[in-house]
Amino acid sequence: MKVLLLTGLGALFFTYYWADNFDPASLQGARVLLTGASAGIGEELAYHYARLGSHLVLTAHTEAFLQKVVGNCRKLGAPKVFFIAADMASREVPELVVQFALDKLGGLDYLVLNHLGAAPAGTRAHSAPGTRWLMQVNLLSYVQLTSLALPSLTDSKGSLVVVSSLLGRVPASFSSPYSAAKFALDSFFGALQRELRVQDVNVAITRCVLGLQDRASAKEGVRGVTRAQAAPGPKAALAVIRGGATRVSHVFYPWRFHVLCLLRAWLPHPRAWFVRQELNVTATAAA
Fold first, then answer.
1. Which residues pair with 223 in a beta bridge?
2. Interval 257-264 mean pLDDT
3. What is the pLDDT of residue 183?
4. In Å, how far are 87, 124, 127, 148, 158 from 99, measured between CA atoms?
5. Which residues are catalytic?
6. What pairs with residue 206 in β-bridges?
């Protein structure tokens, strides 16, 4: 019986993750606003979209890094690439970014929200000012960008892609402010997804649950704290693009995160043993 159950679950996940109808040609000429595009998975997303022939507006905090990514996107074949340096910690910035994208592209087919404000892991990160900053960057700016871009996405029957984290589904020790922002992000877009369906608004929302990415800044932020293995950025970025293009409601990368989220629903109170397998508790307590 157990063998049959495991076989059935394996077949279900294989069908879910591999039997999609992704058509790369559908992204040729698509108008994409991508945030957090200067490094990590955002940079890889920009390169994939460029290869697929999309028109791009890229934004991130550091202009010098953005200029490098823009140059690479042009070499990869993007017909139009624009950029605007923006600090999402400022409440005035999201409106400037969306208006810039609308002016340059004449509308939007995809809004890909990927920017990130990261707090250092450890107990020292529990300050109220730091939490407010994290909420502005990781939640409120997402809400602002969405509300401003939604009319254009409605006109184009477009897609909204939200790149989030496993910490928005499964809380981890010593990351409470960051997890709080990610849980709120997942709840907001989950509710918005249902509202749009009820109102017959043809805008797809794809929520992406990703793990630690294989880039220096991400790994450095949790060095000595977590034992989790980093995932390759280009593969994770392609999974995000496939999900957005096929208008699925969720993307899990690596795929085993879907199983982890299901287990968390069934076993909501992990014992200390599991926490210690996930974390170097001595390092976090000393932080």
1. none
2. 57
3. 85
4. 15, 38, 34, 8, 17
5. 178
6. 161
Has residue 31 got a pLDDT over 70?
Answer: yes
Domains along the chain?
24-257+265-279 (3.40.50.720)
Q: How far is CA 142 from CA 92, 137, 149, 159, in A?
A: 13, 8, 11, 14
Residue type, position 156, single letter: S
What are φ and ψ of residue 103, in 5° steps? -65, -40
Residues 6+ apart with CB under 8 A from 216: none
Nearest in space to 59 (alpha carbons), one of 160, 141, 165, 159: 141
- The answer to whether the CB of 250 falls within 8 A of the CB of 206 is yes
Residues 6+ apart with CB under 8 A from 55: 29, 30, 31, 32, 78, 79, 80, 81, 105
Residue with token string 């040729």: 28
Question: How many Å apart are CA 57 and CA 35, to the nearest integer?
Answer: 8
Task: Return the amino acid letter for 14.
Answer: F
Question: With b meaning 16 or more CB within 10 Å and e meaning fewer, what string describes 247-277?
Answer: bbebbbbbeebbeebeeeeeeeeeeeeeeee
Task: Read off the pTM.
Answer: 0.81
- Are 49 and 77 in contact, with CB atoms under 8 Å apart? no
Of 216, 147, 224, which Cα lies nearest the Cα of 188?
A: 147
Map tokens 């250092």 to a residue: 120
Asked whether the beta carbons of 156 and 108 are under 8 A apart, the reply is yes
Per-residue pLDDT tens digits for 122-168: 545 567 888 889 899 999 999 999 999 999 999 999 999 999 877 65
What letter does residue 30 receive in the DSSP assignment?
Answer: -
pLDDT in tens, 86-121: 999 999 999 999 999 999 999 999 999 999 887 655
Q: State the amino acid at position 83 in one-letter form.
A: F
